[in-house]
Amino acid sequence: MIPILTTLLTGIGRRFAYCGAIIAAVGAAVWILFRQGKHAAEADLAIRRADARVRALQTSKDIRHDLQNTDRADLERRADRWMRD
What we know:
By secondary structure, this protein is mainly alpha-helical.
């Protein structure tokens, strides 16, 4: 009777160890995927912020250039139109 119980318990132990190893491997894979996704999202956000900053600086440069090259009468006309709107 003891050898039969030992065989059954050993078989159950191996099954639990096998299932535990599979669950641990799947859990590690999921954790790695989430971690990589988080890092990718942070990198994407940093790139979008940098692009927005570059666009804002370019727009500011263009506006400053336009204002410096426009005559006074045109600036006054634009300001009047802007104040009406």
